[in-house]
Amino acid sequence: MSYHFGNWPPPFGIEYRVDAVNALLALLISGVALFLLPWAKTSVNLEIPERQGPFYALFLLALSGLMGITLTGDAFNVFVFLEISSLSTYALIAHGQDRRALKAAFRYLIMGTIGATFFLIGIGFLYAMTGTLNMADLAERLPEVRDSNVVHAALAFIVVGLGLKLALFPLHLWLPNAYAFAPNFITAFLAATATKVALYVMLRFIFTVFSPEFSFTAMPLAAVLMTLAIAGMVAGSWVAMFEVNLKRLLAYSSVAQVGYMVLGVSLVTAAGVAAGILHLFNHALMKAALFAALGTIYYQIGSVRLTEIAGMGRHMPWTFTAFALAGLSLIGVPLTAGFTSKWYLVIAALDAGQPWLIVIIMATSLLAIYYIWRVVEAAWFHDTPEGAALPNEAPLSLLVPLWVLVALNFYFGLDTRLNVGGAEAAARTLIGGAP
């Protein structure tokens, strides 16, 4: 589907183009917002009792920016929407109740601005060499000048800039505090959408604009992405094992999960790219459910530190059971969405002749078992601290949307027509039928 703004045909006008790749992302972003907003009302009332109008306006700006990034076919328009979503996100994170939210938002602002600048420099190089900003037109004109050092530099700048937005190891330092100190609703929404959109843009440029032959043959991008993906999988999972703040624990887990997505892409096969996109979709469901569960815990207890939830599983069984079930999906237990994407990643590694990657996938999944079990053990098997207030179960306004998100993790583990079928169609579109 193609829409020309103001009836100006591309490449002169701005085009919105929807294909198998970004249709899946647009569905994911809008779906996450749809399922989180009913949960958000109760949570936001507690954390932001005043000036909710500007807060929700900023959220709508962030949502619009992410949708715009996903749907536009114009490279400079990607940058514009990237800034719209980023600027509103900085302000949303600063709404956190902890004073450290301001510092986290400022750090994200600095690093996000650096990433956006790198991306813009890359776009500028491409425009200087081709005279166009339409991505489809760029794909047609770049082969004539792709031997130029300017085009090589453009790819490098774009990948680094988007790697920072993606929180690809070691460009992830903004993410743990941003997730930890933002309002719980914003953490859940960003964890499910923002890094996914950055990965989509990277895929769009690597495969559609530059072509796989240039990105992975003329440039050693596959080896770089695989190395950083493995480092992120191991480092993110390892740090998560020792975190006592559960939001930071899940934030470092996200660094590891981004590694899984990028690992699939680095295989440069249809199966690998499909596995990466599939994990992108499934991970959004996992983290939306897990962070919504933490937000529900915070609503009743006022903390998400491991020491503060000791024994609380016996008083909030529905909430902590939801967290445990979403954690099964993160680990990759059969019948969950997480198992589906890891299974396809293992198959892709075998098809690519890289069976040693399976060992790393399994090892990091075992680390996930450890840090999810720490939460389960504290909630059900530790004694409640003396003098601690015993909470009641969370209200239905939080529990019902939370359990819907948990149910989606199991639904897409059993019925894979949408997520697996969509990921495979997206992979075919990106790499043009490569094996």
Descriptive report:
This protein is an all-alpha fold and 435 residues long. The protein folds into two domains: 219 residues, no CATH class; 216 residues, no CATH class. Strands 1-2 form a two-stranded antiparallel ribbon.
Keywords:
17 helices, two-stranded antiparallel ribbon, single chain, 435 residues, mainly alpha, 2 strands
In short:
The chain is mainly α and 435 residues long.
Question: How is this fold's topology laid out?
Answer:
Blueprint: E1 2-4, E2 15-17, H1 20-47, H2 52-71, H3 75-93, H4 100-130, H5 135-141, H6 149-166, H7 175-181, H8 184-209, H9 212-218, H10 221-240, H11 246-266, H12 270-301, H13 317-331, H14 337-351, H15 356-381, H16 396-414, H17 419-431
Antiparallel strand pairs: 1-2
Structural class of the helices, strands and pairings? mainly alpha
**Gap from first CA to last CA:** 26 Å
What would you report as the Rg, rounded to the nearest angstrom? 21 Å
Contiguous helical run count: 17
> Which residues sit in consecutive blocks of at least 5 with pLDDT less than 50?
none
Return the string of H and E elements: EEHHHHHHHHHHHHHHHHH
Please count the beta strands (DSSP E, at least 2 residues each): 2
Biggest sheet details: 2 strands, antiparallel
Q: Strand order within the widest sheet?
A: 1-2
Q: Residue-averaged pLDDT, rounded?
A: 89
Q: State the share of residues found in helices, binned by percent.
A: over 70%
Number of domains: 2
What characteristic shape results from the CA principal axes?
Answer: globular
**Hey, roughly how much beta strand do the residues contain?**
under 5%
